[in-house]
Write a structure and sequence with these properties.
CATH class of the largest domain in chain A: Mainly Alpha
Number of strands of chain A: 0
Largest sheet of chain B: 2 strands, antiparallel
Helix content of chain B: over 70%
Number of domains of chain B: 2
Radius of gyration of chain B: 26 Å
Helix content of chain A: over 70%
Oligomer: heterodimer
Distance between the termini of chain A: 24 Å
Chain lengths: ~300, ~300
Amino acid sequence: MSTPTLARAPRAGTTPTAPVTRPARRLRPGRVALYAVLGLLTVVYVAPLLWAVSSSLKDRSDIFAFPPSLIPDPATVDNYANLLATQPFWRWMLMSTVVAAVSTVATVFLCSLAGFGFAKYEFRGKRVLFDVMFSSLAIPFAVIVVPLFVLVAKLGLANPFFALVVPWVAPAFGIFMMRQYTEQSVPDEILDAARIDGCSELRTFLSVVMPLLRPAVGALAVWSFLNSYNTLLWPLVIIAEPEYYTLPLGLQALFGAEGRQYDLVMAGSVLAAVPALIVFFVLRKQLVSGLTAGAVKG
Amino acid sequence: MSTLTRPSTATATRGAARAPRPGVRRQWAPYLFISPFFLLFTVFMVVPVGAGVYLSLTDWAGLGSPEYVGLANYSRLLRDASFGAALANTAFYTVFAMVVVLPLALLIALALDARGLRLRDFFRLTYFMPVVLSPIVIALIFGLIFDGEYGLLNATLEALFGVGGVSWLTDPWWARVVVVVLVLWRWTGYLTIFFLAGLQNIPRELHEAAELDGAGVVRRFFAVTVPQLRPVTAFIAVTMLVSTAQIFEEPFLLTQGGPGEATLSVSMFVYRAGFQRQELGYAAAAGVVMFVIVFVLGRLGTRAFGVGRNR
């Protein structure tokens, strides 16, 4: 800190309070422009979703009608009815949801555990191991998809529940996130106290550390659920039997089979988006703050 | 203070039953805690990468045993115009993400960081929303909008300006633009929340000090904001690099890599070679090339910015 000159010193005392006391009632042109831009962006983000919902409620022949109208006329739920009648849609959704839920539970546990290990212990090789873990973030999936497919198929592990869950339950991003959060929010004194009370290390983690990690756990859970729920490439490669199709896979197959017609897939897309959006809206605060907590500190 | 008397008794009884010293338990505990990651990492990443390198040296259709062919797959890749196109397209998507999406996300974050902004959370969440949707759902929705004949966009252009009929998905350049628009739509809001968190994390005193020293808005941005955002920028840049380098769903679904191979990505190339044409060795070779490129760039990025370390 450089010493302020005499002339500046008094100003420094007043500046912090000035913006707080000044009411921003009068709308300046800059503000208007700011809100206009942000509002326009909101339209850009919301309009495609509204259009999807609107299209899903239109008759097949009206989807591409000219001029386009946002309000379906006549509005019909035929697309939804047809989709549910002709396609095992609920099965796809059940498959996706179960796989995502199981993955999420395992991911949260394993990432928190590893994050705790990296955050609160000193051990030989820690730096190297952390670097290895972190650099695995830079391994693109396209690289391992072929050999992984061969491996899983040859070892007879192509059972969808195994193949869709197990390889992905310890993502480096999750461990990194949990390490950052653990470092910031779990004080060493608490760990020492637990150890003094005779808790084993695992016990300490489960009963002392985990509760403190709640916000980050929420974020990681949403992140993990959505990742699993939305993924396409790996299921596309590994799932051969239609009865094990996940939602993205089912929609993809339907779009191909229907000659790229939009009536059924739009209804399916809207229904598929609902659980993702619900999870997002319920846990939005945790997701946003938890995701960013780690990255900001770097 | 009552706990002061307990350590000796607690460690004595437990120590006798289990480990000789509490320190010993504490030594293997971290290894145990991080071991699940390293187990899965070894089985499902290291081994496949190794197997991929081996497969890339073979000719194999998935049946029988792979036949060793040396570097033939790689020399074929060098001559394969499709692979060149896939690399070029992927590079285009990635560079676009770095040069357009990233700065745009920062601009939006700066706008959202404006003092006394109303509805900040609403805007932030709205922009963030696309990333929770499945890429396949996004691709389907935009297929509806960019449809060359009757899509919403053409219809709107027609109604507003009297010009329409742009072949968004069947013209090579427009198709690339559409893929990039999807990347923009999906990722910008996601990156914005990281930048915004970074901005909110900058101590206000830094700005005030700079202001007192007579620095203007632009000067403050480059002298205070940019350096302070370095860790978060690095994290975002590496995330974006790896994500866009493996872009798959958007071109796969929207354009099927077409028209021709105008939107083909490397991931699609690998998928097509491996699972549609049963050339597993060739697909593995393409994967290895991509691995080298992305990994080197990713490592350079993390090294340059020092991501993941607390300094």
